[in-house]
What does this fold into?
Amino acid sequence: MATARAMIERRRASRVLIRIPVKVFSDGTQGQGLDTPAEAIAVSRFGALLRAPFSPTLGSRIEVLNGMSQETEEFRVVRVRDASDGIFELGIEILYPARNFWGVHFPDECCTA
It folds into this structure.
């Protein structure tokens, strides 16, 4: 198992611990659509860690509506962990990282005056 240090070194960008309300949309299983509130608890330019009341399959695609900006982007589920009380932690990766979907200043971004 990789150490925490090794995992940090492999990250493409820094993470920011923050709470952003989101809504998750998915085709769901067996043809049933999914439209559920969730919460981003850590974000980066390339993805996020969500707390959500469902467990999608790894590799599935979901759409996430940022509750602050009302923008929607498509993500891929790269990690699912059962946290507690029917809440799951979802590691998600943005499919088209062209702009700052989260509206957050990341520490590793260069600042120009």
In short: The chain has one domain: 11-94. Strands lie at 16-26, 34-44, 47-52, 61-66, 72-84, 87-94. The mean pLDDT is 85.
